[in-house]
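Objective 1.3, modelling of assemblies. Example input:
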Amino acid sequence: MLEVEGLNVWRGATHVLKDVSFTVAAGELAALIGANGAGKSTTLLTLSGLLRARSGSARFGTLDLTHAKPERIVKAGLIHCPEGRQIFQSLTVAENLAMGAYVRGGRIAPETMAEIHTLFPILKEREGVAAGTLSGGEQMMLAMARALIASPKLLLLDEPSLGLAPKAVETIFDVIEALKKRGIPILLIEQNAAMALDIADRAYVMEQGRIALSGTGRELAGNDRVRQFYLGAT
Amino acid sequence: MTQYLFQQLVNGLALGSLYALVAIGFSMIYGIVRLINFAHGDLVMIGAFTSLAMVVGGVPWPLILLFVLVVGAMAGVTIGAVIFRPLLGAPQVTGFIATLAVSIVIQNSALMILTGQPRNFLFPAVMRERVTFGTVQASVTDLLIIGLTLVLIAGLFFVVYRTRLGVAMRATAENLTAARLMGVAVHRTILAAFAIGSALAATAGLLWGGKFGQIDPLLGFVPGLKAFVACVIGGVGSIGGAMLGGYILGLAEVLFVGLLPQEFSGYRDSFVFGLLIVILLLKPSGLFVRHVEERA
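Predicted structure (tokens):
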């Protein structure tokens, strides 16, 4: 589904991603964990076409992500729900959702909307208000709903739990699991390594721009190094 | 006295309409590329001379209006594509200087081609008549300017708040990166904002010529500056604010001249810029913007 091979990305004078290779298979939830500045977000931005690789390849089905325009990538179904939510604060909740359907003409099928409202009932109540007035948890739900409306064939989630209250984190993880059950492939970046490894089929640990470890979620959760550095075991 | 007041009111609204038409585009462009476009006023001049050329060529007036909209949009897209696109992401000062340069190039090219000689610009005779409402009168030109501006602004609000393009423009203005992640081709969206804003400014040029009866290659400077003031009054980046700022400025200008003794009327621009200073002191973010969002 997604195959990344020997990816090298520079940001200014900094060599951020060094020979990064990994895959996400159909129907799989893959987690990418690592410290701040390890290159996780850079990886996602490169996959979405917002940053360009200096060498290496990234293929999504038949699409070459290292050369395609961002709008082409979105059309192909690779949907990126960015770090810090990045909802459009001055637009209404309904307009934010319509932006999710932008590449398909901005129209949302009633059954898709019904599905979104089942997953996130709060968004139905808040339809007409400016998105900036929502709480952090609600904004995250809006960001995820906006991504889902784009009908992802692969969903990139960047730190969905960051800065949220524990209750909201739980809701977000429930939704991620629901999406996994529906067979939507997900590449998840998380600070909360324990929760991520718990639901991941496959996981990668990124350190200083390289993939340092990989395995199933369960394998990595049992790995001493991961336990020491990412799960806080002593 | 009522006739005098009424006439001043209509005159102020007409002038305010022209400022509003220019200010809206100014504000749209600032909102989406965060650059103050000092070449925006020159589109008023381009619109005025395009209209004059077609009047001389015998083109019917409704077609002239349509043509001016198209020429203005094309000129705006050219400025956007040639100047702003390569500068996207450059420091603000660079863009600012670039727009000043574009303005100077446009004005001096126009001087070379058209010479500095002012030319007469006359609306058809029917437009120069006055209509009577009971005891008061107003000029048809002023009424046309007010009416046409309202129609154009209504059209603009429809596009910006009710269409997919408009939602994408507002989304891009607020958060360029997120808009790209939604699959918005942001460069095209930015050029669309240039096209719409510039078409409005060029139409203001057509109406400007009709109201004042004379045009010259440097005529864009004053409306450009006043549009900037209108934007600051209303809150830069807000379309509704720019519109209201334009009307406030037009009315204030006419009232200063109308209500103060005759010998002060030569100072009308100092009153306008004085108003700007007062507003900057009291409410720097503009009268109609509740809070200013800083982009990270």
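The longest strand of chain A covers residues 14-24.
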